[in-house]
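Dear colleague,

Following up on yesterday's call, I've attached the two folding results inline so they're easy to grep. Please treat them as preliminary; we haven't cross-checked anything against experimental data yet. The first protein's sequence and structure tokens come first.
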Amino acid sequence: MKILRSKLAIIIFLGVAVLFFTNDFGLIDIEKTAIITAVAIDKEADDYKVSVEVAVPEATDTNAENQRALISGSGKTVGGALKDIGDETGWFPKLSFCNLIIIGNGFENENVIKVLDYFAKTMQIQDSATVVYSEKTGEDLLKATSPLDNISSFALQKILLKSTGFDNDVITTDIRSFCANYYSPHSSSIMPIVKIIEQRADVDKAQEGGANGSSTSQGGSSKSSASGKTVFNASTSALFKNGIKVGELDKDLTFAYNLLNRSVERSTIKVDDVDGINHLLTVVSNKPTIKLTATDTDLKLSINLDLYCRLSDLNSVNSDSTFAENKPLSDKLIEATKTKLEKDIGDLVLTEMQTGCDILKVKDLLYRFNYKHYHTYKDNYLSKLNFDVSVAVSGQK
């Protein structure tokens, strides 16, 4: 029996050794693997143009950066455009690692769910992939070079998916949430708008006092030979009703939306000109409450927000190191903050009523908590809606 066990152990060991030394257990050598990190879709006439950003790991002892490639294909469908990429390159990459989908030009009056459904229903991409709307073409967004990262999609994710402890002033939407909202009773969705901000291509060395660096002389002025770079801004948002873009939220209204829908701990609020002083407040906690009350003659939305803040900065001529001691909020500062936020939240509700994009999910509240009156208001609830907003701001006294 012992001899049989010994022989069996030797056979198993030899089998494992063969697998290990011949094929690495079937594992892929990451150094030779390219993966799609982002997909951009633009509409050109009746065709979809799909551009994919491919990250090619080539890290060595002397180079820690990854290389990237941008490949495009066209087709009558998104799947057809992806197949076109494969037909032209001979390479059919998977989308398992794709974390970003960009909606670009041509979708101003087009239902974007036609595009997103392909990714949501074919299960080729993870549900947590972020969805954004591009101010320019999606291809331009992927072509942009940024000092934040060699791969533009990674640079974009830095501003879209901020680490804990930074401003939560950007809308974050993934495929799962966008499609869930589209197929819900309110049929309204939102996603961030990404804008490209051009940085100076050249730095005037004469103004830098002859700083070290490679430069070329031009017209008596010395300028660096560094190529131009771009950064991204996603502080505004696009509104979609039934998958079609119907409006936008500016930076203030985007933040107001975040105040009502997620924790914005450590986000900042600028309150200007309180007795001639500009203040910066940091949110310690935000507790929103949204309630809908329906009667036979009235439909009322009540929004309450409890905000606890601390003073982070001010431009007073008397400010000094004692500022770090967490000064209490003055009554005038509290009132100014309250007034500002009540106005922004009120404008957010008005924007919802004007565009028909129910991002506050009023119809869901009507269905779930006021079903008795659902059929009375379901077709015109936004035009019948009355609302009031109350913000309570507190801080150290």
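Below is the second protein, in the same order (sequence, then structure):
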Amino acid sequence: MKKKVAFIGLLIAFGLALSFLESLIPQVIPIPGVKLGLANFAVLMTLYLFGFKEALIMNFARILLASMMFGSAFSFFYALSGALLSILIEVLLIKIDKMSEIGVSVAGGIAHNVGQILLAIIITKTIGVFYYLPFLIVSGILAGIVIGILVKKLRPVLKRIVKD
């Protein structure tokens, strides 16, 4: 139990560090919301190693801390809306067990963007922000592939560490 809590704490810290690193990267694509989604590595790893509840707690803690340290209330709610839909889709796909880590990550990246667009539509009271979705889907696919490959390669190593 102590090892599990410590490892989840490390994943929260790692996810927070990735969120901070991502906040330093200049926005080269002039479309709001297009990001690498690096912190999803920590979320997916927590999900695969420990399960839904732990991943949900880990991701909520990371989003809260990131918003307080280098974000805003808006960034908290946008990140949370995307994260909730993303993790629900990822859990469902893992339970179905028909996709690799890469497929799960891609679906999670797309779901994250859809969640954020839905919140933006609610906040702005306009369907116009929906036009960003195709660009966000492309970024979700690309980022999901990279994150998924990393999770697929590192998961066996981290699984051995957690089990020891």
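For the second protein, one point worth flagging: The helical segments are 2-24, 40-49, 52-70, 73-96, 101-124, 133-163.

Best wishes,
A.L.
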